[in-house]
Specification:
By secondary structure, this protein is of the alpha/beta class. It is about 45% helix and about 20% strand.
Length: about 160
């Protein structure tokens, strides 16, 4: 069981405007809580790069959240800019996470290759993009969730002696 904090940000014009119920965000929250994360923050933002960036920065810099998951905005639509927002706020990218998600998802659908999801590190926060579809978000999060605690252990622990020399 994890001992880390988490945030879930839903990126959706329609959910932000109240035109469609957010199903992916609450489902991701439940999955994280069942894995032992304490979800301390949730929000819904429109598909606007600057607003997504602001939320990602807020969870990392102001709230010191260990894991921020953004769901939505990872496709080919001109308004799908979550990966660009993620890349712009992260100091280091973690390409293995979206690679693993696409690999596992490709066993279910060939459309997995169309995901532009990104993942990276800002300070002590790991940021991961998931698709906006609840089904796809669940499949993608299931693919990486078992490894995340180890990654967060490395990210948030004190450096080992050989790393400081």
């Amino acid at each position: 069981m994890s001992r880390y904090s988490a945030a879930v940000i839903t990126v959706s014009d329609k959910s932000y405007q109240g035109q469609r119920e957010d199903l992916a965000g609450p489902m991701v929250r439940t999955m994280l809580e069942e894995a032992g994360f304490e979800v301390k923050y949730t929000s819904i933002v429109p598909d606007e790069k600057d607003l997504i960036e602001r939320e990602l920065i807020h969870t990392a810099d102001s709230l010191d959240i260990a894991l921020t998951v953004a769901t939505g905005g990872t496709g080919f639509s001109k308004r799908d800019v979550t990966p660009e927002a993620t890349e712009s706020v992260c100091q280091r990218m973690t390409p293995g996470i979206p690679e693993a998600m696409r690999y596992e998802s490709s066993k279910i659908t060939n459309r997995a290759m169309l995901s532009r999801a990104a993942a990276g590190i800002r300070g002590n926060t790991l940021i991961i993009n998931l698709p906006g579809s609840p089904k796809a978000a669940r499949e993608n999060l299931c693919a990486v969730l078992p490894a995340l605690e180890h990654g967060l252990d490395m990210l948030r622990s004190a450096p080992r002696d050989h790393e400081t020399e």
